Fold this protein.
Amino acid sequence: MVSTSLPRHKIWIFPTTRPNELMVNATRLAGQDGRVLNVIDPVDFTEAEVSGRKQVREYARFLKSYVPGCEKSYVVDTGVEVGIRQTRSIEGMKKLTNDDVVNCRKRPDIIVRSPWPIELHSGTKPKLHWLLDDWYDVPYGALIPVKGDNIIVAGRCLSAEHEALASARVTAQTFEYGQCRRADRGTLPQRR
C-alpha cells in the first residue's frame, strides 16, 4: 500500500555524478492545517523542520518499496535546515518586476542575465513560467537598498516583486550576484 502522507504528486529525481546515487527533490512544507508557514516565526520554523524530516523518511521508504533499483537505497544527506525560498526583501534603488521577467526585459544597468523560469511552490500545484530561448536582465539597483550606506544584497532578499523573485533568487543567479564588482558596473545608482 502506498503511503498517503506524501504531500506531492510529482517529485524530481536526478542522477548525480556519483555512480548509483540519486538526488531527490520531494518534500513540500506546510502547516498541519495546510496553511503557509511563516518561517521567521520560530514555532512555524520548527514545524517545518520536523515535518520535512518526517517526509524525507517517508519518501525514502516509498522509493525503497516501490521504485525498481532503489531496493537497497538509503538517505545519504539532507539540507542542514529547511530551504527558505522567500522572506524579507529590501526596498531597492530599482525593483525587478514580474513584467520584467515574463517579457524578458533587457536593461542597460545589468548585473545578471537569467533564463530561469518563475518557479512558485505554493499551494497544490507549482506555478512555472518558462522563458524559452531568452532571458531577462537583473538591474544592479535591485541589489542596493534605498536606505543605508555600503550595503549590497543578493539572493532572496533583493528588490523584486513576488513572482519575479521566484526566478531571481535561485542558486546560479546568486552566485553571479556575488561576483559583481562596483568597478565593473560604474557608479552606484543615485539615491532618491
User: Anything to note?
Assistant: Residues 42-66 form the longest helix (25 residues). The chain has five helices and six strands.
